[in-house]
Hints:
Elements: H1 2-20, E1 25-27, E2 30-37, E3 40-45, E4 49-53, E5 60-64, E6 67-71, E7 75-78, E8 82-89, E9 92-97, E10 101-105
Antiparallel strand pairs: 1-2, 2-3, 3-6, 4-5, 6-7, 7-8, 8-9, 9-10
Amino acid sequence: MKVLFAFIAIFGFSSAASLSEEFGYVGDNHSWSLSCNASGYVLKSQYPVTRFFEAGAASSVTRERETLYLGRSCDASSTTMGEGKWCWANGGFFAEFETHRISFPRQEVICPGGGDDSLACGC
Length: 123
């Protein structure tokens, strides 16, 4: 009986922790969580993402947890890649920036509470 209670306590705590932020999206070989606000969708990487930015002698590397903002007017913004655009099609959705493109194949942006406007951003 004590083993059963210990199992329930451990499982209960681990499942409660996993519910706090679900990383159900995969793009650019990274896990992302999705949330929504009045401006659109917000995707946050689970772990730091390392990116190389080619600029000759001024090339740089960033390593941080990234945030992608996908706006209702099909605009995109990234904490590391700047401004861009995004769209969706039957094969998934992607965000495109000047030097990078992050694809989320076979996935759709769906807000938990509904009110999705992603149809306006078709490719």
